[in-house]
Amino acid sequence: LPTPIAHFIAEHVDHNVRELEGTLTHLHALSQLNGLPISLPLARQALGSERHAKMQRIIRMDNILQCVIAHFGVRLAELQSKRRTQSIVYPRQVAMFLARSMTDLSLEEIGGHFGGRDHSTVVYAVEKMERRRRVDGDFASLLADFDRKIRNGES
Asked: What burial class does residue 78 get, using C-beta atoms within 10 Å of its C-beta: 0-12 exposed, 13-18 middle, 19+ buried?
C-alpha cells in the first residue's frame, strides 16, 4: 500500500480496527475487480462506499441482542441476570463485544443493557472476545456472521 494512500485512509478511518479492515478489503477488491492500481481516487471511492453502507442502517442494541438470543437460544432475562454460568456468560460477552464494535454506546451504557454491569466488566468481555477472535478462526467467522446479520437486519 503506497504511503500517501495509507495516510489518507488513516486520517479517515478512526473508529475501530474492523472499519479499517473493511476499508482495506474493499479497496483491494475494487482494485482487483476493475484491474486498476491502488490509487488515491480508488481509496476515496472505497471510503465513500464504506461510509455510505454504515449510514444505511443504524445499529441499535436491540438488533444485537435479538441476533445473539436467536443464535445461542438464551432469553434476554438470562443475559441481563446476575447468573455467571458459561452458557450465559459466553453469549453475554459476545453481545458486549458486538455492542462495543458496532455501536457508539459507552461502556457504561452497554453494561446497563446487561443488568447494570460495571464498565470494567464490559472492558473485560471485549478484550477477551478480541483475543479469542485473533486466535480462533471459527470464532472470527462467527463474529463476522453476526456482523453481517445485524447490519442486514436478519436475526
From this structure: middle
- Spatial distance between the Cα atoms of 54 and 45, rounded to a whole number of angstroms: 14
Rounded Cα–Cα distance for residues 27 and 101 (Å): 21
CA distance 119 to 105: 11
- Angstrom distance (rounded) from CA 42 to CA 109: 37
pTM: 0.66
R_g of the chain computed on alpha carbons: 17
Q: What angle do CA 121, 72, 128 make, to 5 degrees?
A: 30
- 26, containing H or E segment: helix 17-34
Tally the residues of the chain: 155
pLDDT, residue 92, reads 98
